[in-house]
Specification:
This protein is mostly helical and 136 residues long. It folds into 2 domains: 2-41; 60-130. It contains 5 helices and no strands. The protein has helices spanning 8-31, 38-41, 60-87, 91-94, 102-130. Helix 3 runs antiparallel to helix 5. The longest helix is centred in the C-terminal third of the chain and has 29 residues, at 102-130.
Length: 136
């Protein structure tokens, strides 16, 4: 039981958050006003009256662009986080038992990032050659 003692405050916060959300939802249902009318049931599209079917097939190109954007955007975030850590590296804080020098570690980290960027570049060229970036 002593091993789980540090997690008790986290469990209490999670239980409190779930309880708070549940109580607010239940009270809103019980106390809140209900005035149903047809305009509340309509889909809101920029204040315009919806026209046509709601289930329209969207071309795969939209999904491909979205997935590629998210993929390269997340990789950019990784690179920025790496750069911040790489610039202000305190080797003893990162690795408690340091078996190599700070210069060796920075060289290793730099080479690893070059490999990472090379993999991203190969993926980018592959998508480009396959026409994933062509909008026609």
């Amino acid at each position: 039981m002593n091993d789980l003692a540090p997690y008790i405050p986290i469990g209490m916060i999670v239980a409190l958050a779930i309880g708070f959300g549940a109580v607010n939802l239940i009270l809103g249902r019980l106390i809140g006003p209900r005035k149903d009318n047809p305009s509340k049931s309509l889909a809101y599209e920029s204040g315009m009256t919806p026209v046509g079917e709601a289930n329209v097939r969207i071309p795969v190109k939209f999904y491909m662009v979205a997935v590629l954007f998210v993929l390269f955007d997340i990789e950019t975030v990784f690179i920025l986080a790496w750069a911040v850590v790489y610039r202000g590296i305190d080797l003893e804080a990162v690795i408690p038992a340091v078996e190599f020098s700070a210069l060796q570690f920075t060289r290793f980290a730099f080479v690893e990032m070059l490999v990472f960027i090379l993999i991203l570049l190969v993926g980018y060229i592959y998508v480009w050659r396959k026409g994933g970036l062509r909008w026609s």
